[in-house]
Amino acid sequence: MRFPVRARAWLRAHPLAADGALAVAVLLAMVLGSFADPHGSRTGPTFGTRAPGPGSVALMVLGAAALVPRRRAPLLVLAVTSAVTVAEFASGDPAAPVAMSAVVALYTVASRTDRPTTWRVGLATMTVLTGAAMCCGSAPWYSQQNLGVFAWTGMAAAAGDAVRSRRAFVDAIRERAERAERTREEEARRRVAEERLRIARDLHDVVAHHIALVNVQAGVAAHVMDKRPDQAKEALAHVREASRSALDELRATVGLLRQSGDPEAPTEPAPGLARLDDLLDSFRRAGLPVTVARTDQGAQLSAAVDLAAYRIIQESLTNVRKHAGPDATAEVSVVRVGRTIEVTVLDSGSSAAAAPGPAAPGGHGLLGMRERATALGGALTTGPRFGGGFRVQAILPLTARTGEDGPA
Asked: How far apart are CA 296 and CA 337, in angstroms?
């Protein structure tokens, strides 16, 4: 699969070589077609019953060679190939299929210009080539060969216009996506800058005020320490009070940077599936019936995968508790499949409750779970269940993609 991809990339980087290869292919097709007699037998065309003359061979070579610069001068190439085709219609009977080069040139014009140009040039080319074929050949004007020239030129113009329209559509989508990405990045940078400015302002207000008080009171204490010890003690008490207030306000300011519900300092190891029963019991005590099925006994997970599986179950059950309704029930399954572990959380839902997840305004639960799974090299799928309820399934590798070992 890599060779065709590399070949296409090389051809895109070297368009002249690609057009040269196309010209050779068109020349071979024209030469092969010039040896075919479409009316050689009742069963179909026959080969070898006729041969092109030297003039026809020269015109075929000229028409194919004109296709090499087709990207740089499409209209000029179309004019040259059309003239070569008309010359072949006028001199050869039956004519060699030199019209193939004009068909390719017309496709190029249609795919690289605008629609009005395609209409004008396409109709003119169809009229000239079809008229020349009808007037110069010995066959009746309504013969299959003459109508074929009309059909092939029309299809070339239509195909080129379709390719141009699709290319423009894809470019428009890509441009909109890039503009939206730039807008998101700019908005994110603006918000980060505003948040940094606000935090800097708060820290300045807290630190500057209290440090100034500490500095003044410390100076007073040093000045009266020998002559008025009681006044020095009072100044030191003010220093201690100001420093305590500064620490409290700094702690409150820095606390705003923590996520909601995060502890101030970790006091126990990170949770994992070993504590799954305790987690499920907490939801049962909160009124959510939860059943569990596990076949992962003996699977040693890396710490990152173990924590991710635990957090996905926790967040999924939290969504069930918040969104699935008071009568909902939940099912949790943890299954080892080869070198992966599958975590699935199902809920029965409620006829009066909305589906959890994306519909909730401002929620980031599903996004966070998906980011956890993707960061470890796994995948997460979510969606409503047939008949009601919601389904969350995560497939995680036993060994995290980050390189952390976890034996199978």
From this structure: 9
d(C-alpha 372, C-alpha 305), whole Å? 9
How confident is residue 76, by pLDDT bands cut at 50, 70 and 90? very high
Question: How far apart are alpha carbons 97 and 200 in whole angstroms?
Answer: 78
Q: In 297-326, which positions are buried (b, 16+ CB within 10 angstroms) versus exposed (e)?
A: eebebbebbbbbbbbbbbbbbebbbebbbe
What stretches of 275-389 adopt beta strand conformation (E)? Answer: 290-294, 330-337, 340-347, 379-384
By residue count, the chain amounts to 408
Contact predicate 102/81, CB 8 Å: yes
Residue of 57, 101, 62, 54 lying closest to 82 (CA atoms): 101
How far apart (Å, rounded) are the C-alpha atoms in residues 156 and 250?
73
Percent of the chain with pLDDT over 70: 76
Residue closest to 144 by CA, chosen among 245, 217, 37, 249: 37
pLDDT, tens only, 184-216: 888 888 887 877 776 765 665 556 556 766 776
Whole-prediction pTM value? 0.46
Confidence of residue 343 (pLDDT cuts 50, 70, 90): very high
Q: Distance between CA 126 and CA 148 in Å, rounded?
A: 11
